[in-house]
Amino acid sequence: MATLTVSKEEEKRLKGMGFLSNKGTDNFSARVITVNGKVTAAQQRCLAEAAEKFGNGILTFTTRQTVEVQGIPYENIDAFQEYLAKEGLETGGTGPLIRPIVSCKGTTCQYGLLDSFALSEEIHKRFYKGYRAYKLPHKFKIAVGGCPNNCVKPNLNDLGIIGQRIPTYDASLCKGCKKCSVAEACPNGAPKLVDGVMQIDKDICKNCGRCVGHCRFDSITDGEYGFKIYIGGRWGKQISHGKALHKVFTSKEEALDVIEKAILLFRDQGKPGERFACTIDRLGFDNVEKQLLSNELLERKEEILSK
After folding, report:
1. How, if at all, do strands 67-73 and 102-103 pair?
2. In this structure, is residue 2 part of a structural domain?
3. Measured between alpha carbons, how far is 68 from 28 in angstroms, rounded to an integer?
């Protein structure tokens, strides 16, 4: 086994830059940031060339939709970063900060209820980039899911967004069909005939929008798009299922403000070393939700960030 020459202090510094030590060697895996998993063809070529020039030629992909280039010797780190920069790529994604935003392909998916690429890119710019200077009690993961299919597990992130389409139902147009086409279209069994009229069970309905346009008598011809927000999820050795805020947000600006308020709350009231799920458990979900639905945290933003 090769003799290690990189000090622990230097390893820690490099980890903060996105370079993770390959155990037993002086080589590192460079964590390269993508914006919600998207890279251009030119960036892809740059990554492949960099892996061959400065690493061992292997690329791996993380659960946060970043790319890791393996086997980079310590002395190649600066040259590797310079090579990536020509295509606008950078390393990072570690530490007690907002982590790279993950997103499903809801923009192009047939089930997508929101432009997940555009939304996650906006979150990336406003929070991953905009909050780089502000340390949090622990890492903070954000995921954007285009629909209730939950492909990127938004409810297992510190904060997750799930696209919604709330059906607009006009019960006066329901004919009480014995074979209800709305019920057939629903994957969750939310529509039920009650006294000859179809009703949608709100406790079962996931707002997936699959029912829209399926009634033969036009009782559901449209639906309102929105954002469902989960807080306090995490995976790993300790798993917490995030809990949804009781409000479905129909304004993107309001949903983005809730994300910012959650980050500010975590920085302000979280204890060092605890995940957001633990902060919520300690403070109480109802207390946290009340703060996220008010404007006090945004009004205190300058004070909180100056700590």
Report:
1. unpaired
2. no
3. 10
pTM of the model: 0.93
- Amino acid type, 269: Q
How far does the chain reach from its first CA to its final CA, in angstroms? 45
Q: Write the CB contacts of 197 (distance below 8 Å, at least 6 apart in sequence).
A: 171, 174, 176
Do 262 and 113 lie in one domain? The reply is yes
| 74 plus 108 within the same structural domain | no
Among 42, 209, 35, smallest CA distance to 109 is for: 209
Residue 29 maps to which CATH number?
3.30.70.3340
Structure confidence by residue, pLDDT tens digits, 140-186: 999 999 999 999 999 999 999 999 999 999 999 999 998 999 999 99
- Residue 117 vs residues 104, 130, 144, 157, 174: alpha-carbon distances, Å: 8, 18, 9, 18, 37
Judge whether 97 lies within some domain.
no
